[in-house]
């Protein structure tokens, strides 16, 4: 393996390294083009853009410490001990280089004469976009023993850069406050930031990243520092799962000036989890580097299986077979990354595919030779996956034959709606025949369909697809949805754009809801990603005062609030104590606790839970796919101890628990 050459010495990072390509004006007009959206994703993207500049310094070997803090007043501070952005006059703009970097789009070290060999953030592109979308931004630079400062508002400098004192060492600090005219809701998510910082610390081994939430009087501080790099990251990602082999595969090499780093581990799980990075940027939609990795993996495992007579003549393993149960991270460093969109969701460099394929092929062959037991375990898991795939295909062909896929034979228990427009159609998944009957009477037949589910469906976390399709309830659901499943899945064929899980507010109802959520997450994830999946919120209590005067409470706090208001209104009629007695008359009110949907008559069910004008629906989303994956493994998997620990840790936060 070739070692990465030294980038450039410190003295060569000057104004001439900053080349200007175009102005900054378009950013405020179309912010979504640069940060993806003006919602929570775009808001946090501002943090990533400033952080990327500090990570560029770390990848180049000039920074060892990065500090990030959330400050009061919706402000964020990012500091590093890199070289510091140059402050001398820029030859092209005739302004200070610091001002140029912060106010001109595409003005950065990445475009200059080699200040960075590789770059994640474009060191000038991202930070200028952040400046344009911030009501306030302050940059402080320490260089050559002097500290400089400049302030901005919505991308415009408030004054020229000025020297404010002396300092030791070097580095850059940026403080910014997102513009409320651009971002309607400004609320930074600590969990999301911590996950991103942990990820970056694994990718940049040897760099210390410290995060502090200073919005409260007692700030919380977290430190990330990992020497193990990607191998440590994969170990972290697979924590709690049963490994299929002892040694984590790790490879690092260089091909055509592209530095490739890969780590992977197989576990007893069925799910595939991959992450791809180019210059430390998480490419959520993958790209050519992941394509090269998959190609190498499939090729090497097929060669190994055939060489060791593990496959019959004419048989071969598919890409899905060799990746089942695999957790892998692929990271490359490349001079000129070609991303699709400013948010860098997908890598497009064709040369990245060849580089990753070459490095992984050579390293994986060597790994198999040095670790024969690990190699056999991985190969046997892939072969078992291939057998299960064939069995699942046969099951799908039985269940999802052509007539059913075209909607000619919908399940008999489905009470379908008359509308054939998926955008207005709703499917309610209801627990039990009793609640199903009530829901069928309550619904608006024009756009609401009802599918009663008998008992608890199969736990798909513990079964392969061929076994899953043996379940009558799951087969009925698959046919009703119209999307098919697994390899045949097509989100465009969804018959309903609102799928509502409606279960009782008790332990059994919660379990059925968890089973359904597991099914959708594992086999219908695009339905969640499109925002089609919801959870109904039936009331817990009805509180009746007088004839026909009924209020509904959806939480314990909601019930107590209604009772306090009733008590306050009846002070003149005697100070009767408010007690929590089910079905008793309290302060002149009759309280009924609903144990199940079947206890509500159709009119009540429509009014509280199904009427679009009154109902409360929770949309199911997945912010952090890997964390969701881990939670499903803990709650629905075979291992008892992790589930016990999870329940003990979260028991105090459970509300409305029926025992």
TrEMBL record:
SUPFAM superfamilies: ATPase domain of HSP90 chaperone/DNA topoisomerase II/histidine kinase, Ribosomal protein S5 domain 2-like, Type II DNA topoisomerase. It comes from the Bacteria. GO terms for molecular function: ATP binding; DNA binding; DNA negative supercoiling activity; metal ion binding. One of its GO terms (cellular component) is cytoplasm. The keyword Repressor does not apply. PROSITE patterns: TOPRIM. Its cofactor is Mg(2+); Mn(2+); Ca(2+). It catalyses: ATP-dependent breakage, passage and rejoining of double-stranded DNA. It holds the Pfam family Toprim. The record marks 456, 459 as: Interaction with DNA. Its EC number is 5.6.2.2. Heterotetramer, composed of two GyrA and two GyrB chains. In the heterotetramer, GyrA contains the active site tyrosine that forms a transient covalent intermediate with DNA, while GyrB binds cofactors and catalyzes ATP hydrolysis. Belongs to the type II topoisomerase GyrB family. PANTHER family: DNA GYRASE SUBUNIT B, MITOCHONDRIAL, DNA GYRASE/TOPOISOMERASE SUBUNIT B. This is DNA gyrase subunit B. It comes from Candidatus Wildermuthbacteria bacterium RIFCSPLOWO2_02_FULL_47_9c. The lineage of its organism: Bacteria, Candidatus Wildermuthiibacteriota.
């Amino acid at each position: 393996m070739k070692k990465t050459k030294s980038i450039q010495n410190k003295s060569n990072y000057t104004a001439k390294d900053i080349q200007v390509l175009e102005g900054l004006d378009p950013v405020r007009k179309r912010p979504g083009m640069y940060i993806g959206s003006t919602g929570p994703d775009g808001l946090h993207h501002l943090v990533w853009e400033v952080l990327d500049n500090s990570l560029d310094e770390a990848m180049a070997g000039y920074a060892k410490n990065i500090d990030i803090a959330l400050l009061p007043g919706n402000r964020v501070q990012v500091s590093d001990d890199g070289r510091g952005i140059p402050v001398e006059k820029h030859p092209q703009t005739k302004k200070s280089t610091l001002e140029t970097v912060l106010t001109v789009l595409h003005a950065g070290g990445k475009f200059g004469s080699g200040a960075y060999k590789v770059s994640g953030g474009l060191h000038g592109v991202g930070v200028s976009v952040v400046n344009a979308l911030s009501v306030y931004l302050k940059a402080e630079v320490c260089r050559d023993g002097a500290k400089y400062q400049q302030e901005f508002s919505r991308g415009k400098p408030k004054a020229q850069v000025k020297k404010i004192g002396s300092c030791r060492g070097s580095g850059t600090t940026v403080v910014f406050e997102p513009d409320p005219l651009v971002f309607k809701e400004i609320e930074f998510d600590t969990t999301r930031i911590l996950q991103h910082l942990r990820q970056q610390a694994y990718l940049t081994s040897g760099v210390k990243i410290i995060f502090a939430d200073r919005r409260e009087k007692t700030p919380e501080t977290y430190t990330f520092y990992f020497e193990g790099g990607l191998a440590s990251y994969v170990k972290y990602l697979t924590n709690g799962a049963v490994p299929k082999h002892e040694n984590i595969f790790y490879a690092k090499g260089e091909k055509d000036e592209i530095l490739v780093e890969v780590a992977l581990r197989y576990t007893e799980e069925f799910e595939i989890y991959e992450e791809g990075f180019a210059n430390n940027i998480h490419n959520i939609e993958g790209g050519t580097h992941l394509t090269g990795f998959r190609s190498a993996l499939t090729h090497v495992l097929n060669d190994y299986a055939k060489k060791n007579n593990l496959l019959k003549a004419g048989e071969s393993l598919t890409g899905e077979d060799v990746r089942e149960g695999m957790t892998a991270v692929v990271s490359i460093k490349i001079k000129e990354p070609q991303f699709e969109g400013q948010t860098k969701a997908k890598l497009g460099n064709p040369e990245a595919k060849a580089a990753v394929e070459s490095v992984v092929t050579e390293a994986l062959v060597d790994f198999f030779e040095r670790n024969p037991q690990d190699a056999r375990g991985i190969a046997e898991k892939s072969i078992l996956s291939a057998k299960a795939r064939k069995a699942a295909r046969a099951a799908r062909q039985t269940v999802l034959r052509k007539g059913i896929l075209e909607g000619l034979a919908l399940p008999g228990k489905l009470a379908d709606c008359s509308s054939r427009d998926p955008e207005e159609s709703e499917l309610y998944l209801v627990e039990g025949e009793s609640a199903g009957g009530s829901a069928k009477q309550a619904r608006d037949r024009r756009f609401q369909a009802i599918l009663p589910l008998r008992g608890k469906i199969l736990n798909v976390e513990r079964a392969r697809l061929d076994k899953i399709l043996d379940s009558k309830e799951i087969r009925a659901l698959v046919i009703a949805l119209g999307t098919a499943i697994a390899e045949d899945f097509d989100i465009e064929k969804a018959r309903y754009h609102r799928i509502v899980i409606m279960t009782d507010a008790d332990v059994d109802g919660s379990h059925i809801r968890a089973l359904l959520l597991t099914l959708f997450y594992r086999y219908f994830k695009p339905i969640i990603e499109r925002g089609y999946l919801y959870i109904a919120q039936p009331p817990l209590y009805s509180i009746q005062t007088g004839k026909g005067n009924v209020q509904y409470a959806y939480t314990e706090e909601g019930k107590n609030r209604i009772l306090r208001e009733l008590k306050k209104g009846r002070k003149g009629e005697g100070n009767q104590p408010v007690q929590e007695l089910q079905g008793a008359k309290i302060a002149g009110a009759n309280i009924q606790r609903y144990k199940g949907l079947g206890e509500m008559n159709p009119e009540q069910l429509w009014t509280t839970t199904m009427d679009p004008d009154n109902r409360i629906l929770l949309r199911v989303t997945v912010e952090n796919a890997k964390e969701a994956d881990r939670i499903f493994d803990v709650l629905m998997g075979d291992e008892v101890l992790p589930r016990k620990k999870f329940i003990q840790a979260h028991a105090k936060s459970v509300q409305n628990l029926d025992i």
